[in-house]
Give the backbone structure.
Amino acid sequence: MDEYSDLNFFAIVAKGHKQEFIDNLDWLTHIHDIAWCFKNTNDGYKLLWQCSQGMEKCAESAQAMLQFVKQRYIIDESLEHEIRQLIC
């Protein structure tokens, strides 16, 4: 990531749990504190993590998110590879 990049992602959750993840963003605070967010569609948010240490810290946060998700959910290896290409 560079100083102009952002990170777009979709959370793929178990059937019937979508609304839980949309209504409660606590799962995103495991990565970093949320500085600002607003619900921009029925399916998601615009969100900015509080990355006071700059973009390198934000990239670390994105990598931490991937690890957090991997510990709890099964991620297809090809998808993980694509995600790593975007955040590394």
User: Anything to note?
Assistant: The mean pLDDT is 74. Strands lie at 34-41, 44-49.
